[in-house]
Write a structure and sequence with these properties.
single chain; 318 residues; alpha/beta; eight-stranded mixed beta sheet; 13 helices; 8 strands; globular; hydrolase; PNPLA_dom; Patatin; lipid degradation
């Protein structure tokens, strides 16, 4: 199995629209260099959370612009507004208690069913790796389209599992390799799944003798810059940290993986990432204003000369 060329996709909720726009720029750079478009230019896809949805979509033949359009048109189904949230919370009060997740997950599940239907993970045209975490066994679950035991899992179940961010969506029940699991967001394991993909390539590809043989395109979804001041960090308890700690964990592990990959892969590592201004960083802000701002962020980043040079270099290495 040839896994030399890796495409890795971070989590980030609705900010997946940024990742899709950047993937469209990768496609354009590949075309300008006379290379085939995604997915034919890569040997392995890896995705966490919203990046897992995108990775599966690409692997099943959906182009980046179509996936970006889904974020545009289906965002209010995935992340319903206040009225629907309050009604959902009221109906779940007896069953889930007062601290139920912000969303019941039904809208997300409906969108995934519409996009992926009954497609199976084994239907992916490119080997695809998607991260999740099982709260019962307290261990990572790494879904692999090329693993016999995972091939018949529905893509929509894998995507629902990897996107189940704690406090936002309920855990997803799924039987995996004969074991009942309660699966939550892949970002808990690796919000930037690049290291998982590198390990898989080194393990599976006999032609890859070391990390310097790899070409890795790592696509972020925007980097948070909102500070948590010293007083808050010292005084917050469980209630105050409940949601911010998810963001801190996701960001921290993404940046640590970026640091490792940059050093072990070297010139073959290409990372697309840009700082988010305060107000653009929420996982679930689907307002028209925020979506327009994210689109502008993605566009401005691609327009930078440094980004254009990086994309051209990536296309040549592919």
């Amino acid at each position: 199995m040839d896994l030399r060329r890796i495409l890795s996709l971070d989590g980030g909720g609705i900010r997946g629209i940024v990742s899709c726009r950047w993937l469209a720029a990768v496609d354009a750079a590949l075309g300008a260099a006379g290379k085939p478009a995604i997915p034919a230019s890569f040997d392995l896809f890896a995705g966490s959370s919203t990046g897992g949805l995108i990775a599966c979509g690409l692997a099943l033949g959906h182009p980046p612009d179509l996936l970006a359009g889904l974020y545009q048109t289906q965002r209010h189904e995935i992340f319903p507004g206040m009225a629907r949230r309050l009604w959902s919370r009221a109906t779940r009060l007896l069953s889930d208690g007062p601290s139920a997740p912000r969303y019941d997950g039904r809208g997300l599940e409906a969108v995934l069913a519409d996009v992926f239907g009954d497609a199976r993970l084994g239907d992916c045209r490119v080997p695809t790796l998607v991260t999740s975490y099982d709260t019962i066994s307290r261990s990572p679950v790494i879904f692999k389209s090329f693993k016999h035991e995972h091939a018949d899992l529905r893509v929509r179940d894998v995507c629902r599992a990897t996107a189940a961010a704690p406090t936002y969506f309920p855990a997803h029940p799924l039987r995996v390799e004969g074991r009942d699991c309660a699966l939550i967001d892949g970002g808990i394991v690796a919000n930037n799944p690049t290291a998982c993909a590198i390990a898989e390539a080194l393990r599976k590809d006999a032609k890859v003798q070391g990390t310097r043989d790899l070409v890795v395109a790592s696509i972020g979804s925007g980097e948070r810059t909102r500070p948590i001041d010293l007083r808050s960090a010292r005084e917050w308890g469980a209630v105050e940290w409940a949601i911010p700690i998810i963001d801190v964990l996701f960001d921290g592990n993404a940046e640590s993986v970026d640091y490792i990959a940059r050093h072990v892969v070297g010139d073959g590592y290409f990372r697309m990432q840009a700082p988010l201004t305060i107000g653009l960083d929420d996982l679930d802000d689907v307002s028209d204003t925020n979506i327009a701002a994210l689109e502008r962020l993605a566009e401005d980043y691609v327009a930078q000369s440094t980004t254009q040079r990086m994309l051209a270099a990536l296309a040549q290495r592919i």
